[in-house]
Amino acid sequence: MEFNNGDDFFEVRMASILTDYDRQIMTSLYQPIIGYGALSLFFTLWSHHEHQIVDVLTHDYLFNLSQMTPHQFNHAKKHLEAMGLLRTYFKKEASIRHFIYELYAPKLPNDFFADI
């Protein structure tokens, strides 16, 4: 589901435990495939989850923080989803749209290279 309104809310959840080693794997193995924009979005969402003061924020906040347009955000999000690093869930209550971005750890190098 693509989002199309900066006023839509989002929250980040962790489906896996992420470590500094995962950051190295992401930078070395995944960035050449998904690009720096998707990697930056992943790291931004991860950092938001680690240091969150507020559980739910708007996409406008995320765009201002990451300096991404809605189009760039959707493009980066699709790359992360294609690589199994992100799943997006959506719910709508009355006129409020709420997205949940669930982050997954990257594959270990041996598993990465063995995956056809």
List keywords for this structure.
single chain; 116 residues; alpha+beta; four-stranded mixed β-sheet; 4 strands
Largest sheet, in brief, is: 4 strands, mixed
What value does the Rg take, in angstroms?
14 Å
- Fraction of residues in helix: 40-55%
> Strand percentage, roughly?
15-25%
- Using DSSP, what is the number of strands? 4
What is the arithmetic mean of pLDDT? Answer: 89
Annotation field: number of helices:
4
Order of helices and strands: EHEHHEEH
Given the helix and strand composition, which structural class is it? alpha+beta
Q: Order of strands across the widest beta sheet?
A: 2-1-4-3
Question: Could you tell me how far the N terminus lies from the C terminus, measured between alpha carbons in angstroms?
Answer: 26 Å
Low-confidence stretches: none
Shape, please? globular
